[in-house]
Amino acid sequence: MSLLILGLALPFLACRGTGEPRASLEVGTFWTGQAAQVLQRELIRISRDLGPMNIEVRTFGVAALSDYLSRPQPFAEREPLDLAIVPHDWLGQLSQREIIAELPSERTQFLRQKLVAQALLAVSDGERVFGYPLSAEVLALVYDPAIFPYPPRTIDEILSARFPQGVLPFALDISKPSALAPLVGSLQGTLIDADGNLVWRSNSVIATLERLRPAWGTTGGWQAFRGGDLESLQVQLYAEGKLASFVAGPWLLQALEKAGRPFAVMPIPGFAGAPAPARALVGYQCVVISRESRWGDLALEVGSQLLREETNETINRATRRLPVLLRSYESKQGLITGGSFGFLRALEQGQFVPGTPHWSEELQRAQQQLKSLASQDRPPTVARESGLLTGGRQ
User: Fold this and answer.
1) DSSP structural state of residue 329
2) Strand bridging mode 83-87 / 23-29
């Protein structure tokens, strides 16, 4: 899928000469739906300001975009991407393979003045910066304030509360390391070692699952932890008053608001007696520039324009991600709903994922373990659970 955007405004320096070809940029993204539409509209506006130029937006699946970028560009059979929107934890591998360009120092200075400090750290390797952060995302706990008049202090407090018949206490997507990470980290003491690698010990994961087992001990409980289109199921159960709390991302705020049932949002609490606090992993969506881009200066400017306050707030409002610009936290337009504040607290208390070269590989291994667990139609026994997570055969 692609959209061709024609810029019609004043000439840009890259294509100002009368004998030079018209500038043409290829932008790759795995965003879909409303997020992709908003990106396309904003790029149309940018192209009108910078043109004359052509911008083609090309959409990929996540795996397809990762594969496309991981191979040397340009390709003999197709045009290379000039820019791409990627998760910031891809940056380590992409920079190590010399696929993306380092931002010039004058661009870096611009980011230091405009960005929340953590957002800049997420796209940096020491003093080198490899992308423009667009938005942040973090998981938090959505809960029913009618059942919990005060924010629950621990997961144990949630699981031990008395609920009306047919109401599940808690749910999360058991196939995603990011959902379990705050709880696993609270038992381990950390999720990230000194070199920026993922710490994901099987015994800590098993201990986490055992502490959560009461949540799926009721009829239908296991189904709220695994399966296809799980987010929609969890929102539906919550809207029907059948789920008291669940782990969710800010992209579900719109669905929760439409459901009409009161809800509150807070950082994910840890287990009672855990040695460390529960800290959710913070991720960023960012724009990177290809080292092989023919229009490198123009690509850098387009990436920078996506961080204009109005443009960036428009993207974040539409995609339900969280702001990265300092001014957004001072603007009522940047923070529309009460639920946003709960996610911002989770963002403030969370820890950003390092963009080290091996992080994505380690996370994929953890996800494969959890997917084998989530593939079980019934709650696994402790022995079966241990076998699935350690690679043993039970």
Assistant:
1) G
2) parallel
Q: How does the average pLDDT of the chain come out, rounded?
A: 86
Q: Are strands 53-59 and 23-29 parallel, antiparallel or unpaired?
A: parallel
Query: Residue 56's closest CA among 9, 131, 6?
Result: 6
Which residues contact residue 163 at a Cβ distance below 8 angstroms, ignoring those fewer than 6 apart?
A: 147, 169, 244
How does pLDDT run across 162-217, given as a tens digit for each residue? 888 889 999 999 999 999 999 999 999 889 888 888 899 999 999 999 999 999 87
- Res 2 pLDDT > 90: no
Phi and psi, residue 168, nearest 5°: -80, 140
Are the C-beta atoms of 111 and 299 separated by less than 8 Å? Answer: no
Say how far apart CA 276 and CA 185 lie, in whole Å: 7
Yes or no: say if 71 and 99 are a contact pair by the CB < 8 Å rule: no
Task: Please say whether the beta carbons of 92 and 125 come within 8 A.
Answer: yes
Task: 71-79: list long-range contacts, CB under 8 Å, 24+ apart.
Answer: 72/97, 72/99, 73/99, 73/290, 73/292, 74/292, 79/26
How far apart are the C-alpha atoms of 71 and 90, rounded to whole Å?
14
Cα dihedral sign for 310, 311, 317, 321?
negative
Q: Within 13 Å and on the Cβ side, how many CA atoms surround 364?
A: 10
The residue type of 32 is T
Give tens-digit pLDDT for 147-169.
Answer: 999 999 999 999 999 888 889 99
Listed range (204-218, 239-253, 263-277, 347-361) with the worst mean pLDDT? 347-361
Phi, psi of 267 (to 5 degrees): -60, 150
Q: What average pLDDT does the segment 109-122 reach?
A: 89
Helix, strand, or coil here: 101? coil
Contacts of 45 (CB under 8 A, 6+ apart): 311
- Of 143, 159, 135, the C-alpha closest to 266 is 143
281-289 vs 351-352, strand pairing mode: parallel
Cα 215 to chain centroid, rounded = 26
